[in-house]
Write a structure and sequence with these properties.
The chain is an all-alpha fold. It is built from two helices and no strands.
Length: about 50
């Protein structure tokens, strides 16, 4: 059976959640959103449009 509804766990999720809560940024536009945007821009040679 393939565990479709079981999210992968790498071990740092709790730490990352704690960081987001401590920074008062549990929605978009926090450090993790910015890191993700930067990764996608670099990975896919994409430009950010604002």
């Amino acid at each position: 059976m393939i565990p479709f509804n079981i999210p992968p766990f790498t071990g740092k999720e709790t730490e990352y959640i704690r960081q987001a809560i401590n920074q008062h940024k549990i929605c978009g536009d926090g450090d993790f959103t910015k890191k993700c945007n930067k990764w996608m821009e670099d990975r896919f040679s994409a430009r950010k449009y604002c």
